[in-house]
Amino acid sequence: MKKLVEVVGLKKHFPISGSKKVVQAINNISFHVMPGETVGLVGESGSGKTTVGRCLLGLTDVTDGSILFEDQDLAGPKVRKKHLGDLQIVFQESMEALNPRLPVFRSVEEPLTTLGFDAAARAERVREVIDRVGLSQRLAKLYPAELTGGQLQRIGIARAIVTRPKLLVLDEPTSMLDPTSRADIIELLISLQADLGMASLFISHDLSTLRHVSQRVAVMYLGMIVEQGPAREVFGRPRHPYTVGLLSSVLLPNPDLPRPVPVALKGEIPSPIDLPTGCFLASRCPLAIEQCRAAMPPAHPVGEDHFVHCIRHEALGHSDEMSRVFDAFERETERILSIGARTN
Amino acid sequence: MSGLPKFLLRRLAYLIPQLFGILLLSFCLIKTIPGNPAVLMLGPMAQPDSIAALTKRLGLDQPLPVQFLIYLKDLAHGDLGTSWQTTRPVLSDLIDRFPATIELVTFGLLVAILIGVPLGILSAMRQKSVTARIAELYGLVTGALPDFWIGLLLIFVFYTILGWAPAPLGRIDIAVIAPPTVTGFLTIDSLLDGNLDAFFSAISHLVLPVLTLGLINAGPIMKMTHSTMERMLQSDFSRFEVMSGLPRRLVMRHALHNALPPILTIISVLYGFLLGGAVLVEIVFSWGGAGQYAVQGVLNADIYPVLGFVLFAAVFSLFVYLLVDIAYFLLDPRIGR
Amino acid sequence: MNGPLVNVTDLRVEFPSLTGPDVAVISGLDLAIEPGQVVGLVGEAGAGKTVLARSIMQMVPEPGRVTKGRAELQGEDLLTMSERRLQRVRGARISMITANPRGELNPLLPVGEQIATMARVHLGQGRKESRETARAMLRKVQISDPDRRYAAYPHELSGGMAQRIVIAIALVCGPQVVIADDATSGLDVTVQAQILMLLRDLAREQNSSMLLITRDVGITAHVCDRIAVMHQGEIVEAGDRQAVFLRPAHPYTIMLLAAFSHNKRLRALWSHADADKAAPARGEQACSYVGRCPLAQARCRAEKPMLRMIAPGHEARCHFPVVR
After folding, report:
1. Backbone phi and psi for residue B107, each to the nearest 5 degrees, phi listed first
2. In this structure, how many other beta carbons lie within 10 angstroms of the beta carbon of residue C106?
3. Residue B10: exposed, middle, or buried by beta-carbon count in 10 A (0-12, 13-18, 19+)?
4. Is residue B159 part of a domain?
5. What range(s) does the ABC transporter domain occupy (chain A) (predicted)?
6. What is the pLDDT of residue C314?
7. What is the predicted pLDDT for the residue at C228?
8. Checking phi first, is residue B90 left (phi over 0); if not, alpha (psi -120 to 50) or beta?
9. Which tens digit of pLDDT belongs to each residue from B292-305?
């Protein structure tokens, strides 16, 4: 199958005013998204994951590297214009992306106006997507301030899918929501994707969500993809110390399950301004050796379509402890939930 | 404090272009004032050819840029031109008059600070209290009343009716021998001279105009103090200090420390503004200061006194701003490092 | 000392409303913290968790006010305490940590000085002694190079580092209770766990009790001894962590746990998130969860349930608790 999106050697540096230094937000990353596939992009704040989404959408220019959409470089003349509507984004806070002075359906139809739809076709499409995201038509006539967080996020999704995009970039779509509405929004996204056949890039720091929604994942740390591969592989048998550290920091609400800490990351994420020459994790990694600080580790294949940027990945062992904990939690939670539930 | 010299150097580097810009702008603006100084100087009976000759001698027939360059060249030699009204070099005129204005404005501002800052703090501390209401009213009144009117009112009450204050005619009693000029500030010079008569006379002449300026300008200082103190007291760090059981005194002191930069800014802006802005008060009290001198210049197309005043005021303001920047630097570790 | 260290009873906090009578953000709330205990308070945004914490500190956010109830520290009511006496209690016997560490610190004072100030004010230490105390505290919160960091200003620190300083300020006087209100939500995931464990270990070492307030249910399962679940200003379920997480009784607690499940059917059974329309009217004598509850019956609309014991040490505010 042909790749829908291919990112090759992407770099993004932000200049710091009054200084010759730059913020190295993205440092030479490559990945791709197949049609209809969900790729998870996971990382903590400052890992550059949001910037990747913004680069894809053309919301910020790239420093180096290329982004191909259906084999065409989006930087080429008129290419982005041709694919207007094929790439859409849902932001973390839809409230900020919506015009507070317009009823929300106006914001939903706006992308269609740019694409030259006439009024009748727009109204038709808007009705359709409002239904599709599970909101009543009445709510669409309200203003952003009158909606709840979960409803706003549904509007944000409606606005993004109204053009029937081929790729949906989801930038932390659930991180501002309460756990309950979070689960609903994720459910909605999964079903939308199945129905509409879109591919999506799901950007999040929430591992238990990504584990659930994505087919493949890429783990970002300080603007680098340190590990990428099939979700089952990466979460089941993580090969990068950072992935392991990230997974073990997930606290599941079950006191009986052990919290395995095979890799305890020390300290905090360094500033992305003066990055060291070697592996960016070396200062926090318990496995780091002298060699790690000498040069940036290249990609090692560790399985089918599974790569890790770590020269010490063998020292990590084949830990699947975390995966077992996740599965045990899921089983245990289902058992708890089954009790007392009405089965009508 | 290793960063301070570097910080100062960077600030000083801006000084020259700033001064140049101010001069250029005021030169152009003054030149838009209609009227030929040559005509005014020679009077209504002058012959056209003598006007032309004087125009040429003054360089007024040259294009504007050339006139400006000539002015700059003279300036570089310490020549600020001559006032045709006083027929004296502008530099010596200003040296005579500028300290009078600065003395007046400085004392006025000190009084304004002494009224405005404590009142602002008190009203921020006790929201909705009587003090806060009085302060609010006070801010309103000072914003609405013109300073010369307050000056006249004070003269009426304290000179005309009560007779406590000396006549509003200058900086010192005519009967008192003025001290030799050292700094130009009568209060300081008289003390240096050991001449207490002159000192008390200077002080008594200062009281009413200083009070006028102080009462009016305490308004904006109080408002700024009030609003920034209020903001600081409601900020997370003040709340955390209260939550940590720090005594109220300490919480207030920390809040004030954080509120100082904006207060300093408004004070420095007022300082620069008052050099010219106090002119009405100068006129009311026949102060003979630089502001009065400059206004005379404007009214009579006497451009060199005006330019000279602008230059003096600009240098003074920039110097004050520099001091404020240094104060910022010392107060706030986030600045300039 | 017998009885709980902190005892909140029948607390009611009201806020004026623009459109009608005052709104009770907290009502009929009871909460006890035993010496040395770590209590987790969980609930969604808007449940009134922060208002509760601030009420205990006697710093209710404006324009709210406490209209009923007591909040006792060792039998002494904090809500009626004089400002002067409160000043000696806050920071010394009861202290609080919140989500925005960089905002909590005075930007113009070196961080070490801010810790030392606490020791001077509350422990009566001198200049030199307080500095030593502050340095020792910096070491305790695992700040590397404490001598250099002592002189650092808040803006020079990362979020995690700033949170360690705030923790140091909160703990330096060895308080009996520490209230941590959303203390780690602003931090990166890999740092969150570090800070939480540090906070718990330090509290344990000093034998301080802790009230850990969070939206993140997962955190409490691993850090707390006892859990209280809050919904719309009321405690709806409380018990030790085993009971609350493994044998949840209130449908709201179960719904919170269901959000973690990927089983769509089970989750749908417990969450009626869009059913808010049917929520009880303000002041109505009904269960506050009735609008969202999948198990609601006629009685739930007619009568407000009380918090009652369903097993030893396990309470729920529900007419029909799920019993296992």
Report:
1. -65, -40
2. 24
3. exposed
4. yes
5. 5-247
6. 94
7. 96
8. alpha
9. 898 888 888 788 88
**Taking CB atoms and an 8 Å limit, are C121 and B242 in contact across chains?**
no
CA dihedral C198, C199, C205, C208 (to 10 degrees): 180
Lowest mean pLDDT among A269-278, B194-203, B210-219, C78-87: A269-278
Gap between the Cα atoms of A219 and A206, Å rounded? 12
CATH at residue B127? 1.10.3720.10
Helix (H, G, I), strand (E, B) or coil at B316: helix
A204: which DSSP letter? Answer: E
For residue B193, CA distances in Å to B102, B197, B201, C224 come to 20, 11, 14, 78
ipTM of the complex: 0.89
β-bridge pairing A72-73 and A64-69: antiparallel
- State how far the alpha carbon of C131 is from the alpha carbons of B167, C126, C152, in Å: 60, 8, 14
Residues with Cβ within 8 Å of C85's Cβ and at least 6 positions away in sequence, in order, are: none
**How many angstroms separate the CA of residue C56 from the nearest CA in chain A?**
25
Domain boundaries in chain A? 5-219, 238-343
CATH of domain A5-219: 3.40.50.300
How many domains is chain B built from?
A: 1
CB-based contact, A269 to chain C, within 8 Å = yes
CA-wise closest residue to B206 among B311, B322, B103: B103
pTM, whole model, 2 decimals?
0.83
Residues of C with Cβ-Cβ distance to B264 under 8 angstroms: none
Could you tell me which chains touch chain A, where touching means 3 or more CB pairs under 8 A? C
Neighbouring chains of C at 3+ CB pairs under 8 Å are A, B
Token pair for B167? 């006549």
What is the least distance, in Å, from the CA of B238 to any CA of chain C? Answer: 8
Answer whether residue B101 is part of any domain: yes
On whether the CB atoms of residues A281 and A293 are closer than 8 A, the answer is no
Domain-embedded: residue B168: yes
Q: Do A338 and C191 touch (CB under 8 A)?
A: no
